[in-house]
C-alpha cells in the first residue's frame, strides 16, 4: 500500500505545480483557487491518498500521514 500512496503523491506533486501555474497566471480569471481547472484533480488525489492512509495505517497514526487540504499544499 505504501507504494500506491507514494505513487499518488508523485502525481499530486506534478498536478500541484500545474495548479500553482494556473493560479498565478490567471489571477484575474479565477476568483478562488477551486475555480482553477486543475483543482478538482488535485482534490481527487488528496482524497484518494487519505482513503489509502486510513486503510493502511493504525488509527492513531492516520493524522500523522494524512495529506493536508489542497489550499494548504498550494501555499508558497
Quick take:
The chain has four helices and no strands. It is an all-alpha fold and 76 residues long.
Describe the structure using short key phrases:
76 residues; elongated; mainly alpha
Explain the overall architecture:
The protein is mainly alpha-helical. It has one domain. The protein has 4 helices and no strands. Helix 1 (2-25) runs antiparallel to helix 2 (39-56). It starts with a helix and ends with a helix.
Distance between the termini: 30 Å
Number of E-type strands: 0
pLDDT averaged over residues: 92
Radius of gyration: 14 Å
The string of secondary-structure elements, in order, is: HHHH
Task: Enumerate the spans where pLDDT stays under 50 for 5 or more consecutive residues.
Answer: none
Summing up helix and strand content along with how strands pair, one would put the structural category as: mainly alpha
The main sheet comes to: none
The helix fraction, in percent, is 55-70%
Strand content: under 5%
Number of domains: 1
Q: So what's the overall shape?
A: elongated
- Number of helical runs? 4
Secondary structure layout plus pairing:
Layout: H1 2-25, H2 39-56, H3 62-65, H4 70-73
